[in-house]
Amino acid sequence: MCDVDELVERVDGRDHVLGVVSRQEAIREGWLHRVAVTVCRDERGRILIHRRSEQVSRFPGLYEVEVGGAAHVGESYEQAAARELAEELGVRALPRLLFTFINRSGLSPHWLGVHEAVVRDAMVPDPDEVAWLGWLTEPELDSALREWRFTPDSHEAFSRYLAFRTAQS
User: Fold this and answer.
1) pLDDT by residue (tens digit) across 40-55?
2) Which of 78, 139, 145, 164 is the most exposed place for a label (fewest CB within 10 A)?
3) In degrees, to the nearest 5, what angle opens at C-alpha 128 toward C-alphas 148 and 122?
4) What is the pTM of this model?
């Protein structure tokens, strides 16, 4: 969950640090900052989706394909992704960074580091963050993305994730 005074690194169009600002200020001013997300798969290849709690400040009650949040000051994309998995799902994993891009969907522009992790352990979701979660196959997720209300980041990040996986195979 985003604290009111959460500090992030303001970065430029090449992802170089310009300074430290509050996340709230970065969003309000439209300044680039870093966000790390992870697409979670199980051993059968299904993809984890979750519905955000109604108590979260951003996109309450919407579904998400990825788990994540803002990178803290001095934190790498990988460190932020691992921390967010632990905070939101109670999962200890080492997500693998696949790619970064400037994401202009959502509340404000930000660099988005997209990771992947295979989740083998039992999850203990934080009820303040996650209202529901489940595993979907890619065809099921494709249908859900058209029928359910997902966060703006979910559509952009997942489409780039699928393109990346296709290019790698």
Assistant:
1) 999 999 999 999 999 9
2) 139
3) 80
4) 0.93
